[in-house]
Amino acid sequence: MRKKYRSIAQSSRSSTKEPLAEGLQIIVPIDSQGRRLLRKMPDEELVAYAKKIMKENGVVGRFELRNTDRGLYYVLRKKGLLDKVGFEERRRQWDKVSDAEIVEIVKRVMKDRKIYGKKELRKVDSGLYDILTKRGLIGDVGFARKRRSWTKMSDEEIIELARKLMEENKISGKKELRDIDGSLYQVLTRRGLLDDIGFVRKKRSWIGMSDDEIVEATRRFMKRKGIRWKKDLEKADRGLYEVLIERKLLGKIAFDERYRSWRDMSDEEIVEYARELMEREGITGRKELYFADRGTYNILRERALIDRAFARIDEQRNNHARDAVIDALDAFGAANDNSSSEDDVA
After folding, report:
1. Which tens digits make up the pLDDT trace of 158-214?
2. Which sequence spans correspond to the domains of the chain?
3. What predicted TM-score, i.e. pTM, was given to this entire model?
4. Minimal CB count within 10 Å: which of 199, 252, 286, 335?
5. Whose CA is closest to 230, among 301, 173, 280?
6. Which three-class secondary structure state does DSSP give residue 29?
7. On the CB side of 310, how many CA atoms lie within 13 Å of its CA?
8. Residues with Cβ < 8 Å from 193, sequence gap 6 or more?
9. Is 38 in contact with 28 (CB distance < 8 Å)?
């Protein structure tokens, strides 16, 4: 005969009394069908009962309690008693979790707990919400937004809404506000109200960042903002764009090229355009031009204009090389002259 295993709920029906801390008794109300009436239990007894269930089943966290006894978990949550149970909070090492994994974790938590808005997520898991804000991933989660009628709101009301949102989320910069509520930020921009908010501009230390870190930060920023072209990046963050130019990193970003009507341009115009581009971005080699602006490089090659575009640079390079050879020959001749003089003296 196969042995029947009883669930937690079934095992509690055998007795309506459970040992409570300090010699008291837990009375678990049961209906005529043997179901626990946890909502009718006093808060103190319900918390003690939850602790007993956790101890018996080796439960230390919220998710484990929910998976072990879902009914008990939801009653505790509805009564606001979860914080009194004494869960062991496990510190999450977010630096080892990718952006995509964090977004997936948030979506799973929202689905499990039936969360639809930002405020709800922040109340349920402030740590998870904070890492979303820090990494600028709020827009990737897909929160349900309440439709706001901006046309019916005055400038003062919109400014007050923005300040309240910033205070609630403990933010002080434009970028943070844009990440949290893009539509509100766009309305502020459209109405020319950004200067009235009182943002605190944070100074970034590019000196402490390596080239690879700046390139990676740029790629994340462009992906988050949907930026594909250089001019759009320059408009969105001029400081970052100038650092990329200064360090000659634009060629590593892989921008999409806008269509240019090369047919309407003469050879001279294309060569001049290429030279201006090379001078502006500090390009000195053919390979650099190829990675910085593939479209320009291809039209130069198609029209056999590459040598013309690089004529000045090649000439300068050849002059340097020639001067170096002349200097070397002069040094060699001077050395021989000194040797001949010494032989004559001898």
Report:
1. 888 888 888 877 777 777 787 777 778 888 888 888 878 877 655 566 777 888 888
2. 8-85, 94-141, 150-196, 206-252, 262-309
3. 0.27
4. 335
5. 280
6. coil
7. 19
8. 155, 158, 159, 162, 187
9. yes
- What DSSP string runs through 159-224? HHHHHHHHHHHT--SHHHHHHH-HHHHHHHHHTT-GGGT---PPPP-GGGS-HHHHHHHHHHHHHH
- What is the rounded CA–CA span in Å between residue 48 and residue 26? 8
Residue 265, φ and ψ in degrees, nearest 5: -105, 135
Residues 234-275: tens digit of each pLDDT: 878 878 888 888 888 887 887 765 556 677 778 888 898 888
Name residues whose C-beta falls within 8 Å of residue 183's C-beta, 6 or more positions apart in sequence.
Answer: 145, 148
Which pair of tokens denotes residue 42? Answer: 């006093």
Of 317, 339, 15, 254, the closest CA to residue 325 belongs to 317
pLDDT tens readout for residues 24-35? 567 788 888 778
Pairing of strands 17-19, 25-27: antiparallel
Length in residues, the chain: 346
Close Cβ partners of 21 (under 8 Å, ≥ 6 residues apart):
48, 51
CB 132, CB 106: distance < 8 Å: yes
Nearest to 239 by CA among 203, 196, 185, 269: 203
Helix (H, G, I), strand (E, B), or coil: what is residue 150? helix
